Automatic annotation (TrEMBL):
Cofactor(s) the protein requires to work: [4Fe-4S] cluster
Keyword check for Iron-sulfur: yes
Catalytic reactions of this protein: Hydrolyzes free adenine bases from 7,8-dihydro-8-oxoguanine:adenine mismatched double-stranded DNA, leaving an apurinic site
Record-linked InterPro entries: DNA_glycosylase (IPR011257), Endonuclease-III-like_CS2 (IPR004036), HhH-GPD_domain (IPR003265), HhH_base_excis_C (IPR023170), HhH_motif (IPR000445), MIG/MutY (IPR044298)
Keywords: DNA damage, DNA repair, Glycosidase, Hydrolase, Iron, Iron-sulfur, Metal-binding
Domain HhH-GPD: 38-190
Protein name per the record: Adenine DNA glycosylase
EC category name: hydrolase
Species of origin: Streptomyces camelliae
Record-stated family: Belongs to the Nth/MutY family.
SUPFAM superfamilies on file: DNA-glycosylase (SSF48150)
Length: 291
DNA sequence: GAGTCGTGGTT
DNA sequence: TAACCAAGACT
């Protein structure tokens, strides 16, 4: 059963994989790790220019570790979820202190780094070091949901059943497993997308349980929509945008202009300080964190 | 386990 | 146009 998936998907990957900079040999484990942080909830097209900038500026973990965390936040630009920049900086510090400046090869040691969870630990171990891990991201989950389980979409949160399935489908051979991880993810990213699934281009359309069932529509509760306008997140984004552009401490009065409602504005700024994304100074001044 | 956390392109 | 979506992590 499983070989009927592995072989065509990997062959398709060999023919259609995108030439992404973090897939080139010269990227190395650090390049893979940086890309994985940036790609969390963020499209490839927006990551590409920032990735190139980061790797040119900080080619090794120790280079980033020497910087102020605020510089990482500034260089993050408008990628979104700027706590990732802080965590990546923290991971670089930990790698420099605990692992001699080299991205660890061990899954448990990767998982212990800030900003690295179940997915990213498996992804770095697999993509950078060729190890055998179930790499279960939103693309792979969708491919499995359709091809194997026969439903349009996976559950909102990753389930034990999905993890078990991913382990069962993992090729025994280490190199093949790593190839399969990248290939199944790419298939979900390019062909078996959330909307407009491209069955005509799919290498496993003939075996796809969902297609064979007549592509039944998703049942159950609507898949959570995330509103943004008017939320604290939007206010945080506006505040941080001002601080990213500034190269000197910013007075409170300048920050006050980004949002009219004072209670929400104060709550958002306080949250940024709590998260370590903003450093308050004496005299009502604010800046990106120096330490 | 449900909420929170950015941003911009696509439909 | 409002909603959906994009290689999740953390509390």
């Amino acid at each position: 059963m499983t070989e009927k998936l592995h072989t065509p998907v990997i062959a398709w990957f060999d023919a259609h994989a995108r030439d992404l900079p973090w897939r080139r040999p010269e990227a190395g484990p650090w390049g893979v790790m940086v890309s994985e942080f940036m790609l969390q909830q963020t499209p490839v097209s927006r990551v590409l220019p920032v990735y190139e900038e980061w790797l040119a500026r900080w080619p090794r973990p120790a280079d980033l570790a020497k910087e102020a965390p605020g510089e990482a936040v500034r260089a993050w630009g408008r990628l979104g979820y700027p706590r990732r920049a802080l965590r990546l900086h923290g991971a670089a510090v930990a790698i420099t202190e605990r692992h001699g400046g080299d991205v660890p090869t061990d899954h448990a040691q990767l998982l212990a780094l800030p900003g690295i969870g179940e997915y990213t630990a498996a992804a770095v171990a697999s993509f950078a070091y060729g190890q055998r891990h179930a790499v279960l991201d939103t693309n792979v989950r969708r491919v499995f949901a359709r091809a194997v389980t026969g439903v349009q979409y996976p559950p909102n949160a990753t389930t034990a059943a999905e993890r078990r399935l991913a382990r069962e489908l993992l090729p025994a051979d280490e190199k093949t497993a790593a190839r399969w991880a990248a290939a199944s993810m790419e298939l979900g990213a390019l062909v078996c997308t959330a909307k407009n699934e491209g069955c005509a281009r799919c290498p496993i359309a003939a075996q796809c349980a969902w297609r064979l069932a007549g592509k039944p529509e998703h049942e159950g509760p609507p898949r959570r929509g995330q509103t943004y306008a008017g939320t604290d997140r939007q206010v945080r984004g506006k505040l941080l945008a001002v601080l990213r552009e500034a190269h000197a401490p910013v007075p409170q009065a300048v920050l006050d202009r980004v949002w009219h409602e004072p209670v929400q504005r104060a709550r958002a700024l306080d949250g940024l300080v709590t998260d370590g994304l903003v450093e308050p100074l004496a005299g009502g001044l604010y800046r990106l964190p120096l330490s």
